[in-house]
């Protein structure tokens, strides 16, 4: 089993006259929390969207757990083993918290459409297992008591955790979090940090885009910093903080 979960190299992406990414690459090891930071417009979200199949790159190569993969569609990326959350919460608002996680879990089902229509014994057993696992994941992220509540009735912080539970339900090799702390108060951020630390302690691998520099510096094992679509620094947080290009481009311009 390879120690490298994600190896992305030479990613470039242009939108019309805008060069959004220029020869960007990252290597993430198993069990790491890896951060992607940079000022607004740096290309973080574009890079994230390329990795997770929302955008098609103009060039570059991708390996997931030592095997080549092509991020051509979000559902194919999820099947390959990358699950993501979004900066703007994308839950099924009128479904319960439990149902939201069960939707994520169904990507790993085997009984198929015929089994669902005929309500076969295999289908019923699989549905029971999905429900059980989904409840376990709700408990894991700290919102188990809201299993039967509609997603839209949960607090903002709890909706964020519900999204993470749904992502975990796909049994990902890598969970990619797009600004998970956005809009959170300090208490919610602390709870988020504890949850991500727990996910890492359970030998899962996390890629995180985040504007909260303090959170990232205290949580991530390694960081890549982008500016104007280019990679200007990579390394452990203590070294990145001292990088003059980073200070100039990001940390020294009112980053918080």
Automatic annotation (TrEMBL):
Superkingdom assignment: Bacteria
InterPro entries: AAA+_ATPase, ABC_AA/LPS_Transport, ABC_transporter-like_ATP-bd, ABC_transporter-like_CS, BCA_ABC_TP_C, P-loop_NTPase
Keywords assigned: ATP-binding, Cell membrane, Membrane, Nucleotide-binding, Transport
PROSITE patterns in UniProt: ABC_TRANSPORTER_1 (PS00211), ABC_TRANSPORTER_2 (PS50893)
Occurrences of domain ABC transporter (ranges): 6-253
Keyword Transport (UniProt): yes
Single Gene Ontology MF annotation: ATP binding
Protein name according to UniProt: ABC transporter ATP-binding protein
Source species of the chain: Variovorax robiniae
């Amino acid at each position: 089993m390879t120690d490298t979960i994600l190896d992305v190299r030479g990613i470039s992406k242009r939108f019309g006259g805008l060069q959004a990414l220029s020869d960007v690459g990252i290597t993430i090891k198993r069990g790491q929390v890896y951060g992607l930071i940079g000022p607004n417009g740096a290309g973080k979200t574009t890079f994230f969207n390329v990795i997770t199949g929302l955008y098609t790159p103009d060039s570059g190569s991708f390996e997931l757990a030592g095997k080549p993969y092509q991020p051509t569609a979000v559902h194919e990326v999820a099947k390959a083993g990358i699950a993501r959350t979004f900066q703007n919460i994308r839950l099924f608002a009128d479904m319960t918290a439990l149902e939201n996680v069960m939707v994520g879990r169904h990507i790993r089902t085997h009984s198929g459409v015929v089994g669902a229509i005929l309500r076969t014994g295999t289908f019923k057993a699989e549905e029971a297992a999905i429900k059980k696992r989904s409840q376990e994941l709700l408990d894991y992220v700290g919102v188990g008591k809201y299993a039967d509540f509609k997603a839209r009735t949960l607090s903002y912080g709890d909706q964020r955790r519900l999204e993470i539970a749904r992502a975990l339900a796909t049994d990902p090799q890598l969970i990619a979090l797009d600004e998970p702390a956005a809009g959170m108060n300090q208490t919610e951020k602390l709870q988020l940090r504890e949850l991500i630390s727990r996910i890492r302690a359970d030998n899962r691998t996390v890629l995180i885009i985040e504007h909260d520099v303090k959170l990232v510096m205290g949580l991530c094992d390694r960081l890549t910093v982008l500016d104007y679509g280019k990679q200007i620094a990579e390394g452990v947080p203590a070294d990145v903080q001292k990088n003059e290009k980073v200070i100039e481009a990001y940390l020294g311009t009112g980053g918080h």
